[in-house]
């Protein structure tokens, strides 16, 4: 019965979304106030209905109602509660309901808290948001109904893929969707602005919190996914340039570009068309990601068992939304008037270079991801484009980006002076050169590249701190003055410093773990020793242990450093009887300089096991860096300018040019 | 500086970047694209495959072909598209879903009649057949569509 309520709520939500997607648009065009006013209650109503459907599905999972096909296929009564709940979105149908729920949540948030928005703009943005919901609700109802009954109900379910029974993966999809779908809000505002033919500083100020929030969520989601791959797949790697990883990375790149170009619109009232274009692009890549994952056209570790009808449907939605958006952009875009002028060497110029590099990088990733599909479609044979391609293309593109990243914030708006900026960066230059040389001389003479990577990270890190110190006049003004400046500094300045410094730490982690990972695969009997990364691992044997819904072989490694016991590692190989499958649980001991990483494989007779041991340098830096970046996004989100919003459009438009 | 000049600077910079990216892409494509072959194709093209050339092969793990060497650290098995059979050697821990009779994709190099795999891929989902494997089986004329993944058994 509850399932039927959920299904009915979804159908109602579709109709509410239809009304919300059309009437306010007409109302705003023809000045029919009641129709404009309809947008807010409709958005809230739509959220309530979708939330009801989601709650009904969650209820079915928690109570293990196997008369629902979806629950029977993806759950089992013996599963721990948290995985019963995460099972709701660990399958295609349920994850689409979550997708729509998040979409409706963003819409309802605008409806509830967007008091300072002009009614017409708000109505139009909510209408566009609802039109997106219409497509995806129809998609759920026509191709992927999660409430389909299975009669007679089976006594128990088939269980959830054990790889997905993991805390990292339980929260990876929701964050990823919050990110993907978050860009829908920037997209809806961009559409609304195009319809009105007006983009100004106030508009940028309204869009910015949404793109910031989406960016922070997406960063978290990608980080969680990468972390999960690192410890759960047991291959010692954290990024595989897998098509589906790329699918989440492309909106991140485009969204990062959007985040930066919207600053220029806010502060300098220029680059408007470009910012609107990026808003469309970021959401287009979010939809493309959804399409690539759902259609099963790509070979990937993530692919859901596929259904061509679903792929076609999402492709149709993609064409309608993005085609429509670009058509509207082509039609109305030229009418957006450009504002302030600037020289190529200026803060605007730096942000523009950031945008150019990020979009070119996005295009390169897109090409590498879709090229196998295109080649196959024209009968050119099956190929795969893997890490070597992306490393060869993407990494060189990041070098100028990082180089400019430290200089850009040093430049003033309108007109800058590179020599002056570099002068303020002498410390950063000195430290970066020292890092490159020290790495080459004392650590690794084999390749200069890894040292250069670390040098770039140092350059960015120190440069970012130098910029922050410069804002405080640290060392040049009395210390008390600096403290006063610190207190007055806008939160967005803290946010930028944190995000850039976090990124520098990520770069260091990525470089070191890619360049100096050491690995050893062998068959070990109890008592055998192997040395990896300066640590001596003694295999003490393995024994059977019983988990809540699995049986595991748990190996024991005593790790010694310089003869003294350093840590004991317990990697597991788990067998899940219900799902008839196995997972590898790597044992990881993170240290500041690198992770000790042990995996146990199949028994090889006589108590021997195949083992794989890695030393992964600076991996913890990556996770820390990602957390700091997300922290930067969140701090920036609390900036009071974003909270207070824009009481009066004109006043702020004028004040923005003068401010900061 | 005039607006036109400013725009020109950035258009120029953009083109330069795109050009650099295109050059990177083209050289990377030359070196790093990995072609996919079915066992039949590998045997047919043996002559052209240098030991440096990376490729992927896919098919089913032949029943009864999996054997261990070096105390279990090395696995040898055969991949078949039910027409031709290719021997594979892999050092390392196999993915959890690697099983005899199941679809598998291996990446590596062809060394004197043996495929030296550096990577063996099996999938999250045991009902899922990698498209390449399905393709390889179709090419060899041995494909039987077994229908959608097994539905819940009542």
CATH C-level label of the largest domain in chain B:
Mainly Beta
Strand tally of chain B, please? 7
Instruction: Give the radius of gyration of chain B.
Output: 22 Å
CATH superfamily of the largest domain in chain B: Nucleic acid-binding proteins
Order of helices and strands of chain B: HEHEEEEEEH
Total domain count of chain A: 3
Number of helices of chain A: 22
Largest sheet of chain A: 6 strands, antiparallel
Oligomer: heterodimer
Helix content of chain B: 25-40%
- Overall pLDDT score of chain A: 87
Strand coverage percent of chain B: 25-35%
Shape of chain B: elongated
| Name of the CATH architecture of the largest domain in chain B | Beta Barrel
What coarse outline of chain A follows from CA principal-axis ratios? Answer: globular
Q: Major sheet of chain B, described briefly?
A: 5 strands, mixed, barrel
Strand tally of chain A: 11
Strand order of the largest sheet of chain B: 2-4-5-7-6
CATH topology of the largest domain in chain B: OB fold (Dihydrolipoamide Acetyltransferase, E2P)
Count of spatially separate domains of chain B: 2
Mind explaining what this structure looks like?
The complex is a heterodimer of chains A (660) and B (154). Chain A is α+β, with helices and mostly antiparallel strands. In chain A, 64% of the residues lie in helices and 12% in strands. Chain A has helices spanning 2-30, 33-37, 39-62, 69-74, 81-86, 92-113, 119-143, 167-196, 201-232, 243-268, 272-295, 308-332, 347-377, 387-407, 418-424, 426-443, 448-472, 479-488, 491-515, 619-637, 640-644, 649-658; strands spanning 383-385, 518-524, 529-532, 535-546, 551-561, 564-569, 572-576, 581-585, 587-590, 594-603, 609-617. In chain A, the strands form two sheets. In chain A, strands 3, 4, 5, 6, 7 and 8 form a six-stranded antiparallel β-sheet that branches. Mean pLDDT of chain A is 87; it is low at 300-305 and 644-660. With 154 residues, chain B is α+β, with helices and mostly antiparallel strands. In chain B, a hairpin with a 4-residue loop joins strand 4 and strand 5. The radius of gyration of chain B is 22 Å and the shape is elongated. The interface between A and B is large, with 67 and 53 residues. Strand 1 of chain A pairs antiparallel with strand 1 of chain B, so a sheet runs across the interface.
């Amino acid at each position: 019965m509850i399932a039927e309520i959920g299904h009915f709520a979804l159908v109602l939500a579709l109709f509410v979304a239809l009304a919300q997607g059309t009437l306010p648009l007409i109302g705003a065009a023809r000045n029919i106030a009641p129709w404009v006013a309809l947008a807010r209650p409709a958005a809230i109503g739509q959220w309530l209905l979708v939330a009801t459907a989601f709650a009904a599905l969650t209820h079915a999972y928690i109570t293990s109602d196997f008369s629902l096909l979806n629950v029977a296929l993806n759950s089992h009564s013996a599963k721990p509660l948290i995985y019963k709940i995460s099972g709701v979105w660990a399958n295609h149908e349920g994850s689409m309901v979550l997708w729509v729920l998040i979409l409706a949540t963003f819409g309802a948030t605008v409806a509830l808290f967007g008091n300072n928005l002009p009614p017409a703009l708000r109505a139009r943005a909510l209408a566009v948001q609802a039109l997106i919901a219409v497509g995806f609700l129809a998609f759920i109802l026509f191709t992927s109904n999660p409430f389909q009954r299975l009669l007679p109900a089976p006594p128990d379910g088939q269980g959830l893929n054990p790889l997905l029974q993991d805390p990292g993966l339980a929260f990876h999809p929701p964050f990823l969707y919050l990110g993907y779908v978050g860009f829908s809000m920037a997209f809806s505002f961009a559409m609304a602005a195009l319809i009105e033919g007006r983009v100004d500083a106030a508009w940028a100020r309204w869009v910015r919190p949404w793109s910031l929030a989406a960016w922070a969520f997406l960063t978290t989601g990608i980080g969680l996914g990468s972390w999960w791959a690192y410890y759960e797949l047991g291959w010692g790697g954290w990024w595989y340039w897998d098509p589906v990883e790329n699918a989440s990375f492309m909106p991140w790149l485009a969204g990062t570009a959007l985040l930066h170009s919207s600053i220029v619109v806010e502060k300098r009232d220029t680059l408007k068309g470009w910012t609107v274009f990026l808003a469309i692009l970021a959401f287009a890549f979010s939809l493309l990601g959804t399409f690539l994952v759902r259609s099963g056209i790509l070979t990937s570790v993530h692919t859901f068992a596929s259904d061509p009808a679903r792929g076609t449907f999402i492709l149709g939605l993609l064409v309608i939304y993005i085609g429509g958006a670009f058509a509207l952009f082509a039609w109305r875009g030229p009418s957006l008037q450009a504002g302030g002028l600037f020289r190529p060497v200026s803060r605007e110029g730096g942000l523009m270079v950031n945008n150019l590099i990020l979009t070119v990088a996005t295009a390169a990733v897109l090409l590498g991801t879709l090229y196998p599909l295109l080649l196959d479609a024209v009968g050119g044979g099956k190929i795969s484009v893997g890490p070597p391609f992306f490393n060869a293309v993407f990494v060189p593109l990041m070098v100028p980006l990082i180089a400019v990243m430290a200089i850009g914030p040093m430049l003033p708006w309108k007109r800058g002076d590179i020599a002056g900026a570099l002068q303020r960066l002498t410390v950063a230059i000195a430290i970066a050169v020292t890092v490159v040389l020290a790495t080459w001389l004392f650590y690794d003479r084999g390749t200069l590249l890894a040292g250069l990577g670390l040098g770039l990270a140092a350059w960015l890190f120190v440069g970012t701190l130098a910029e922050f110190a410069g804002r405080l006049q640290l060392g040049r003004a009395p210390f008390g003055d600096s403290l006063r400046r610190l207190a007055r500094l806008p939160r967005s300045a803290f946010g930028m410093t944190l995000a850039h410094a976090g990124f520098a730490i990520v770069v260091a982690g990525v470089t070191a773990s890619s360049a100096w990972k050491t690995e050893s695969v062998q068959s070990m009997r109890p008592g055998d020793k192997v040395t990896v990364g300066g640590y001596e691992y003694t295999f003490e044997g393995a024994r059977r242990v019983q988990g809540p819904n699995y049986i595991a072989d748990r190996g024991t490694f005593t790790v010694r450093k310089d003869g003294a016991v350093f840590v004991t590692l317990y990697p597991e190989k788990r067998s899940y009887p219900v799902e008839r499958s196995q997972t590898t649980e790597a044992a990881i001991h993170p240290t500041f300089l690198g992770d000790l990483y042990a995996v146990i494989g199949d028994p090889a007779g006589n108590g021997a096991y195949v083992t794989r041991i890695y030393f992964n340098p600076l991996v913890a830096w990556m996770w820390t860096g990602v957390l700091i970046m997300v922290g930067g996004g969140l701090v920036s989100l609390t900036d009071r300018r974003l909270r207070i919003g824009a009481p009066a459009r004109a006043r702020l438009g004028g004040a923005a040019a003068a401010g900061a | 500086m005039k607006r036109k000049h400013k725009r020109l600077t950035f258009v120029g910079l953009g083109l330069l970047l795109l050009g650099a990216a295109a050059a990177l892409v083209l050289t990377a494509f030359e070196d790093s694209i990995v072609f996919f072959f079915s066992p039949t194709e590998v045997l047919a093209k043996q002559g052209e495959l240098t030991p440096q050339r990376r490729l992927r092969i896919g098919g089913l793990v032949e029943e009864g072909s999996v054997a261990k060497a070096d105390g279990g650290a090395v696995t040898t098995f055969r991949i078949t598209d039910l027409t031709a059979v290719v021997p594979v050697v892999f050092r390392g821990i196999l993915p959890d879903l690697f099983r005899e009779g199941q679809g598998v994709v291996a990446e590596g190099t062809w060394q004197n009649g043996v495929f030296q795999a550096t990577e063996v891929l099996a999938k999250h989902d045991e009902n899922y057949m990698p498209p390449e494997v399905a393709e390889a089986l179709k090419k060899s004329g041995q494909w039987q569509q077994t229908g959608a993944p097994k539905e819940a058994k009542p």
